[in-house]
Specification:
The protein is α/β, with parallel strands linked by helices and 142 residues long. It has a 5-stranded parallel β-sheet, sandwiched between helices. Strand 4, helix 4 and strand 5 form a beta-alpha-beta unit. Helix 1 crosses helix 5, helix 2 crosses helix 3 and helix 4 packs parallel to helix 5. The longest helix has 13 residues. The radius of gyration is 14 Å and the shape is globular. Bound molecules: D-ribose (RB5). The site of D-ribose has 8 residues, from helix 3.
Length: 142
């Protein structure tokens, strides 16, 4: 499974940690940057990762900025993107089951590395439940 990663300078270090964690688990990674701690603008990375999901280049995306807020706001401007900012594993599980979220957003200045990896693992291993939730997703996209 291919996962697209994107982060600004606030999320750069956590992106690198997630990247090596997922590579060790056998995931294919599409790293859309940023590639250093130099200050950059988070919307650019949200756009690149969103596009890679919408073109089926990657199945899921993970976006990281300082809070996870700006980068998720940007991603959710794209029709078909459902970016969920998660601060715990319950949110990650439920957003996959109920919202069929296709992007996980994380706040590197809010969520510690160990918890962030648990959130990532939960997000990537939980399936959409469909049923009544599909109708609600259709309403979002309508
Ligand atoms: C960058 O300083 C910071 O504003 C950004 O990472 C993010 O938290 C925005 O929502």
């Amino acid at each position: 499974m291919k996962i697209a990663l994107g982060a600004d300078h606030g999320g750069f270090e956590l992106k690198e940690i997630i990247k090596s964690h997922l590579e060790k688990k056998g995931f294919e990674i599409l790293d859309k940057g940023t590639y250093s701690s130099e200050s950059v603008d988070y919307p650019n990375f949200a756009k690149e990762v969103s596009k890679s999901i919408l073109t089926n280049e990657a199945k899921y995306g993970i976006l990281i900025c300082g809070t996870g807020i700006g980068i998720s706001i940007t991603a959710n401007r794209f029709r078909g993107i459902r970016a969920a900012l998660c601060g715990n594993t319950t949110m990650a599980k439920l957003t996959r089951e109920h919202n069929d979220a296709n992007i996980l957003a994380l706040g590197a200045r809010i969520t510690g590395d160990v918890l962030a990896l648990d959130i990532v693992d939960t997000f990537l291993s939980t399936d959409f439940e469909g049923g009544r939730h599909q109708k609600r997703i259709d309403l979002i996209e309508d």
